[in-house]
Specification:
alpha+beta; three-stranded mixed sheet; two-stranded antiparallel ribbon; 9 helices; globular; binds zinc ion
């Protein structure tokens, strides 16, 4: 075999001495930031997908830091949150929103395409479309709370984001495409989030129940696929922009699509987390007639209980 073929370029390198991996892109970091910006991750379990089991291991910690380019992105995330403070505070605490934006900006590293954060609308669109792929692409997600079967402690990426597989790269590109599409829609004729079309039978999204969205798409679904009791009559109505993106991806209405939309609304990205929600999720469309539409997505569910379950299983906030 020729030693000059591109395949001979190493994907991973051993971490030497006191060097730490960047928790975002996974490269080995040296220099002044090394000790200043250290986060201790907790590894609670190891995945064995081939055996179909997740082995609980004694908790171990893994120190990660940030490389200089990722530090600059963190500063951008902070600056965006501070620039639109009143808006950002509606999304959650400052550190929570900064964390999520930092994950969103990881998509830049994966795709090589810049993500704009120059208006509140940019912020919410980027969080909506890129949050899941961004968080899944983080190096630290491969270790905490569950160590992926192919993730090894003590090695780093030879190039940033080398650990990101083809599926996830595609998901990141799809998220960016959706983001750009939503921007085009918004510049073509400014769409202001509004309720479902006037002739729609329901006043909220059949999935998340939200009362306003910039885009609505008609949907007919069985009560059963929406998590309700079987009934002869299907439910007709509309779904919001997030719901239609998720459905385009998953392909059909059901627990998988609803859990994915729910986790996205909760800002959860772990790849195993759709299984982690053990409860049967009910789409808003399967709730009794007269259930008011939601001001925030999935508010008809006991989100605190779901967060509690996720916290136990996955260390989610
Ligand atoms: Zn990095
Ligand atoms: Zn919805």
């Amino acid at each position: 075999m020729s030693t000059t073929s591109p395949a001979a370029v190493p994907v991973a390198v051993q971490l030497k001495g006191s060097l730490l991996p960047c928790g975002i892109c996974g490269v080995s970091v040296s220099g002044p930031h090394l000790q200043r910006d250290v986060t201790e991750l907790t590894i609670s379990a190891v995945d064995h997908p081939r055996l179909g089991v997740r082995e609980l291991t004694p908790q171990r910690s893994l120190a990660v830091t940030r490389c200089a380019p990722r530090r600059r992105r963190l500063e951008r995330a902070r600056a965006a949150v501070d620039a639109f403070g009143a808006f950002a505070s509606r999304l959650g605490s400052r550190s929570f929103v900064v964390d999520r934006l930092e994950a969103v900006l990881a998509v830049e590293g994966v795709t090589g395409t810049a993500v704009g954060l120059s208006s509140p609308r940019d912020l919410s669109a980027a969080l909506e479309r890129l949050n899941v792929a961004g968080a899944a692409a983080l190096w630290s997600t491969r270790f905490a709370p569950v160590q992926a079967s192919d993730a090894r402690v003590g090695v780093a990426n030879a190039v940033p984001f080398a650990h990101v597989g083809d599926d996830l790269r595609q998901a990141a590109r799809d998220g960016l495409a959706a983001l750009l599409r939503s921007r085009l829609l918004r510049t073509g004729s400014v769409t202001i989030p509004a309720g479902p079309p006037a002739d729609s039978a329901r006043r909220g999204c059949l999935l998340c129940g939200i009362e306003r969205s910039d885009v609505w798409e008609a949907l007919t679904a069985s009560t059963r696929s929406l998590g309700g009791r079987p009934s002869a009559e299907p439910i007709e109505g509309d779904i919001c922009s997030v719901g239609s993106d998720v459905l385009a991806d998953v392909g059909f209405v059901g627990q998988k699509a609803m859990k994915r939309a729910l986790l996205s609304a909760l800002g959860v990205a772990h790849s195993f987390a759709t299984d982690a929600v053990e409860k049967t999720i009910r789409g808003w469309g399967s709730m009794p007639d007269g259930t008011p539409a939601n001001r925030s997505p999935w508010a008809h569910l006991d989100l605190e209980a779901i967060r509690r379950d996720l916290r136990e299983i996955a260390g989610v906030r």
